[in-house]
Design a protein that fits this description.
Number of strands: 0
Order of helices and strands: HH
Radius of gyration: 43 Å
Structural class: mainly alpha
Distance between the termini: 141 Å
Number of domains: 1
Strand content: under 5%
Number of helices: 2
Helix content: over 70%
Length: 101
């Protein structure tokens, strides 16, 4: 039995050697400063997200207005073409009326 105790002790010490990790000690003041800087960065990120959302809404409104404007221009062009066709038909009718007299 006495021979088993040193063997058990060796196992524990070898397990401790393998499990040891380097412990890093952080300076609280430095951590505190970094923590507040990160808080400031997070606040700025949130502000930028809100600004991005507002700009996206404005951009969508501008795009929609541009699209409506383009639709109106297309409609006006069609009306102009129809009016021109009617004027041409009227002019042809006048010419044929003058020729027949």
């Amino acid at each position: 039995m006495g021979s088993q105790e040193p063997e058990l002790g060796n196992r524990i010490s070898s397990a401790d050697d393998e499990g040891e990790k380097e412990v890093k000690v952080a300076d609280w003041a430095e951590f505190h400063d970094v923590f507040y800087e990160l808080g400031g960065v997070a606040l700025k990120v949130n502000q930028l997200r809100v600004k991005k959302a507002a700009l996206s809404e404005r951009l969508e409104a501008i795009i929609e207005a541009g699209s409506k404007s383009t639709e109106r221009l297309d409609c006006l062009e069609k009306l102009k073409t129809r009016l021109q066709d009617k004027q041409d038909s009227l002019n042809q009718a006048k010419e044929s009326l003058h020729e027949s007299q």
